[in-house]
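fold-stage: in
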Amino acid sequence: ITRNGKYLYVPYSIDDNANRQGTQVAMINVGTGKIVGTPITVGQGPVWAQIAPNGKRLYIANNFDGTMSVVDITP
């Protein structure tokens, strides 16, 4: 969740619609519950997302390919 509490980053580890491993993280508006913008493409099977203390980067652990994605989320 962002420092201001307005947004939550949610990883998609499984894509049920396509019946395959997920590869995206969505930014959700906490007040409306709706996805904001386009989901961020990361590695396969993202299971965990953490915002850096300075609020400028998002770190995502990708379970199925054993990688870590780092995304610039500077406003």
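fold-stage: in (second)
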Amino acid sequence: MPSSPKIPKELILKTALQMLIRSGNGAITIQSVARELKSSTQPLSWQFGNMENFRAALAEKALEYAVEKTNPRNAGTAFAAFKEVGDRYLDLAFDEPHLFRFVFLGESGLHREFHMFSMLDSRRNES
């Protein structure tokens, strides 16, 4: 039976996300993440195979984080929820600009509609 990885995938992604938030997309390389983890590059290569897979996993992790940060929490009415989401997007843009650019302005390579205006898409609001 193969041994389990010494550095779990989730820890690698969490570390890379923290680096992304702190320093931006340009700071993320397999070497820089390994350095932050005080590791060799082997665990990252083993977990993700290549940089393309690593970046795709990081983009998904960043999107998850951003969606959690922008979801309304205490809104009682539809209008209040809409306003809260807008406020949360603005907070994210000002507080974590590297993450905002990565997820919502195309740096991640996610070619999906994950932005505030996608809430207005009637197909997403049918239920």
